[in-house]
Write a structure and sequence with these properties.
Order of helices and strands: EEHEEEE
Strand order of the largest sheet: 3-6-5-4
Number of helices: 1
Oligomer: single chain
Low-confidence stretches: none
Radius of gyration: 16 Å
Structural class: mainly beta
Strand content: 35-45%
Mean pLDDT: 77
Largest sheet: 4 strands, antiparallel
Helix content: under 10%
Number of strands: 6
Distance between the termini: 42 Å
Length: 91
């Protein structure tokens, strides 16, 4: 999160991935051989007096190797972020 004047900027995608960081295996790259599903769901309760100025557009991409979707929305005082990365179906 960063303050910019009267604004508070939140980069939800980076924050959602923070819990997966493993500092002992920095140089490894995982290899996935079959179907997989990787998801994140983050909810942030907005403090009283805070309001959302703008949200990013939902993202959607489909390729032979996988599909990606993400969206950010407001529900009451909750800022909700969800992301899904789905690997290829079995052959």
């Amino acid at each position: 999160m960063q303050e910019r004047g009267a604004l508070l900027l939140v980069r939800l995608r980076v924050w959602a991935n923070w819990r997966r960081m493993d500092r002992t295996n920095r140089a490894t790259t995982p290899t996935i051989f079959g179907p997989f599903l990787d998801t994140d769901q983050v909810e942030i309760a907005l403090p009283d007096g805070f309001k959302v100025d703008e949200l990013p557009e939902p993202a959607k991409a489909a390729y032979p190797f996988g599909q990606y979707t993400s969206k950010t929305e407001i529900a009451g005082n909750l800022l909700k972020y969800s992301r899904e990365y789905r690997g290829p179906p079995p052959r």
